[in-house]
Amino acid sequence: MEDSSAVIAKALEQVGPRLKQLRAHRGVTLSALAESTGISKSTLSRLETGQRRASLELLLPLAQAYRVPLDDLVGAPEVGDPRVRLKASKRNGRTVLPLTRQPGGVQAWKIVVPVSNSTPRLRSHDGYEWLYVLSGHMRLVVGDRDLVLKAGEVAEFDTHLPHWFGSDGTQPAEVLSLFGPQGERVHARARS
What we know:
Elements: H1 4-13, H2 15-26, H3 30-37, H4 41-49, H5 56-66, H6 70-74, E1 89-91, E2 94-98, E3 107-113, E4 128-142, E5 145-150, E6 154-158, E7 163-167, E8 173-180
Antiparallel strand pairs: 1-2, 2-3, 3-8, 4-5, 4-6, 4-7, 4-8
Helix pairs in contact: 2-4
């Protein structure tokens, strides 16, 4: 069994490559990352190449910019407890619970939409989204389509189209969202 200082040293060596891989996977430039974090391009470059040691002052803004737990950036060693402790947050008046912990690729979320979240505010961005209504009624506006989905119904759409989802105004909704930031789509396969 490795001693703890060797495990820590090994984890720290991987921070730079992990940061570079995450940035490349997300398709973010050093300039854009510098702008969103307030960290200079040269510091970001030195972090990625291992010429600069990572500190909390640098890692916290990066974790926030990438919307990943700090543990994912540093590759914190696994602990004995296998339970996943998900942390809900509030976004746009909704309770959002991340179900995936790895940065990049398809992201899964459980979203609780209160009745009060019923005024459409359409937006568009890169990606592809798949929504499954777990409970309640969800109103979905995509382009010029305005739909109400009930528990058990699914919708998927290209997020380049102006879109919004929320409550239909009669009851809260619980929604499972799968989002592919690079336009990845959900592929369901039936067993033969």
